[in-house]
Amino acid sequence: MPNSTPSPSLRDTEQTTVRYYPINHVSGKTVPQELGLREAFVVPSFELAEALIAGGADSARIAISRMDSPEADYQGHVQDASSTELVPAMPFRFERSILIVLPTYNERQNLEPLVEMIGRHLVADILIVDDNSPDGTGQLADQLSRQHAHVHVLHRARKEGLGPAYLGGFAWALARGYQLIVEMDCDFSHAPWDLPRLIHRSGTADLVIGSRYVPGGKTQNWSNRRRLLSQLGNAYVRLFLGTNIHDWTAGFRCYRHELLTSMNLEKVNAKGYVFQVEMTWRARQLGAKVCELPIRFSDRVQGQSKLGWRSLVETITEVPRMSMRTIPSR
Q1: Which of 125, 146, 308, 317 is a good FRET partner for 92, with 20 to 30 A between their CA atoms?
Q2: Which sequence spans correspond to the domains of the chain?
């Protein structure tokens, strides 16, 4: 049964003292104060946390003291002595079943630490979709699956691009009845501590996008080339498909099961990062409610970025075609 296995806690992790500053309201869009290394805000709800983040606060430095959703279970936050982000004393648990799809190609260095960190923040199943990585990522994924009941593996014969990998993961998830399906990179570009925010927001949205380009969102440690590619790509997409989505190419997102089943996924042809654009376009064509949450997107921790000019060329050719089509719903 999905999400039946508890994720690990921090009971055996060395912790450090954190000074908390309670925040019960936010005036305008101004963050109340600057935080020191071992300081954090504590708020009574996800909604107040979002107000702080939109004003510039770091989501890694916000603890939620009382859940405003009856489906979530909260038991406090702590801080690992070796890091700066807050970690729940026990991971957030939601009533809806959750699958996190992690596409991998040569991610052996990142895979095990990411699986562990996800488990500290959220009770969810994980599907590793490996495209026959030559560095042994697939074998490590199998090992993790044997060790952890909530970790699963889908092996693919060869590298075909981001789109086919995610579509394979979506088909696997829908066949097993998961209610929420999350896209997430395997290189720590997407912060595991933002996962509960996406899941909570999915209560009122069909598609939740972790956005770099809404108030409170930002990019960190990017080269000028990487930033230029992203900004050009998004500006081009907005020119053809509309300005109501700020981050069309974002890859950190949560879909409801019902939306994915209505999207005619077998008709999705995008291979590279334009896959994210096509999925967002299809959601909007179906009248889905799309929400963008601000995130801080960091450059990958280990390995090399797989984003290149080929992805930009695919965007240039495919986006105009989308603007001239409509899709039927099922």
Answers
A1: 146
A2: 19-88, 98-323
Kindly report, residue by residue over 12-68, the tens digit of the pLDDT: 455 667 888 888 888 766 677 788 888 889 898 999 999 999 999 999 999 987 555
DSSP 69-124: STT-B---EEEBTT-SSEEESS-BB-SS-EEEEEEESS-HHHHHHHHHHHHHHB--
Alpha-helix residue ranges (DSSP H) falling in 202-308: 224-241, 257-261, 274-285
- Cα atoms in the Cβ-side hemisphere of radius 13 Å centred on 259: 25
Separation between Cα atoms, residue 252 and residue 321, nearest integer Å: 24
Q: Which two tokens stand for residue 212?
A: 């770099």
Q: What is the mean pLDDT of the chain?
A: 87
Residue range 98-323 in CATH 3.80.30.30: no
* Structure token digits, residue 272: 């590279």
